Amino acid sequence: DVKVTQSSRYLVKRTGEKVFLECVQDMDHENMFWYRQDPGLGLRLIYFSYDVKMKEKGDIPEGYSVSREKKERFSLILESASTNQTSMYLCASSFAPSGTDTQYFGPGTRLTVL
Amino acid sequence: GENVEQHPSTLSVQEGDSAVIKCTYSDSASNYFPWYKQELGKGPQLIIDIRSNVGEKKDQRIAVTLNKTAKHFSLHITETQPEDSAVYFCAASKGNAGANNLFFGTGTRLTVIP
Question: Residue A3's CB: how many other CB atoms inside 10 A?
Fold first, then answer.
């Protein structure tokens, strides 16, 4: 079974702090994604990566950056956390660079910025 | 870009009854339509998908229908059970290689009342 793990289930940070969210997948998937989930807004894509060191902006990249130094690991970085970044963050991966491949999601990290 | 609308936002049904969730999409180039189920405390998981070359697909108690002309697709769950209670997301994709962008609906919280 595909396993996508996220470093924390719950995280509380203060405004202005630098925040790292880590995601690891164990199935040698090419693609990795970071989404943000908010009530009434569904899942919105922040960034995705289709190869090591490659990244593409999604729909809401402002205030975020990403890093993919190894194929299995994709990190989301909040350079200076703000209260409007309080949300559930979901990482996902998929096998091949095709828009019809199943995305496998991690359990999510609920981030609260005070 | 693609815009996916999903209705209703909440749905309560009695155990054994059917549930229907509807989605519309805006981009006629979209050709792949998956449905994801998110249980409490977990990430979304693919439950069924349909491609634009078919109009209907069924998997046990779950079925999806697609009307390309009207640009809408629906999820049908028959003989609902308490374990069907979850948040369901529809999504649409154009299947472009290298992009793998899924555009998600806003979600439907389904409650099955025993």
Answer: 11
